Amino acid sequence: LSNGTVCTPRCSQGGAFSVCGTNRCQFQTQGREADANQEILPEEVNVKRLISHTKWAIALLLIPAVGTAIACTNQPAEPGIPTPEPTPQPIDAPLLPPLSEAVLNQRQAEMQQWIQSDLDLVGLGKIGGMGSPISPELEAYRQTWAEIDPAVAPFLGTWAKEWNMLPHNFMTVFPSEVAGRVCLVRYRQQETDTVPFETYNTPLEFSVAQVVDGQLLASNTQSARSLIQRTPASDYVPYDVEFLSTVDPDGSLRVYASQRPPAVDPAWEPELVEQFRANQCRS
User: Fold this and answer.
1) Per residue in 89-123, pLDDT tens?
2) Fewer CB near the terminus (10 Å): N or C of the chain?
3) 130: exposed, middle or buried (C-beta count within 10 Å: 0-12, 13-18, 19+)?
4) Which pairs with CB-CB distance under 8 Å and at least 24 residues apart come from 149-153?
5) Quick count: other Cβ atoms within 10 Å of Cβ 105?
6) How confident is the model at residue 59 (pLDDT cuts 50, 70, 90)?
């Protein structure tokens, strides 16, 4: 002002607007004036204004900071409440019933005869080889899953029978996020009916299996821990081979040899990828 009096734009008492007089600051409060009745020197006004403005600045800085801290603080989980497991997707197709002990013994004997017959053919030079060496990567993969879901671990992997005569069988067994379940992708390579020695692959067949009491049960095949066998290296086949047999609904026996850890094929059709994901399968 012209007389040198300095008035604070907003007074600290209640935050009301100030009205400036000659040498004093009057405060308006809810319909009445309250006279400060005290001379305020310019230096005092400057100090009070500085204090007032400092308080406002601190408040404006603290309010958003406190809000951010509250919004970003992760509340600890309540003790004793477990993390919820994924909701199991129901298996659409009905599963085949478990194999009886007698049937399992019979199938195991057939499997051993089948393996020995092919070993003899290798020894006679009729076929060039049989199976693949047991994969260290596959064994490590199974060991990892054995700590998560030990029931399914022995079945996991890519299995194939691609020696001797057609048809050649292929099956990949994937783990699942649901304990005790696996996902199967199977197909065959076989000759056409019209052109000799011309082959084709059958469409990929997806299914979900449950492992119960050592038996793998799906809607289109069955297997068991007792139908997994390791054959030691010999003069004919200079490496250990791991075999797995499955039984189809028509009673036919398929024998595979393990190859490598399971992996999703980038060439899969979108429909198969969707089935894989919807059934909580893992690679």
Assistant:
1) 778 789 999 999 999 999 999 999 999 999 999 99
2) N
3) buried
4) 149/175, 149/179, 149/180, 151/179, 151/180, 151/211, 151/214, 152/176, 152/180, 152/181, 152/182, 152/211
5) 12
6) very low
Instruction: List alpha helices for 94-153, DSSP H.
Output: 101-123, 136-146
> Edge-to-edge strand order for the sheet containing 25-29?
18-20, 25-29, 32-35
Strands (E) across the chain are located at: 18-20, 25-29, 32-35, 157-161, 168-175, 181-191, 199-201, 205-212, 215-217, 222-224, 228-231, 241-247, 253-260
Region 29-53 average pLDDT: 41
* Residue 128 vs residue 104, higher pLDDT: 104
Q: What angle do CA 190, 193, 194 make, to 5 degrees?
A: 125
CA distance 31 to 35: 13
Both structure tokens of 178: 């649901």
Neighbours of 119 (CB within 10 A): 19
Both structure tokens of 1: 């002002």
pTM above 0.90, yes or no: no
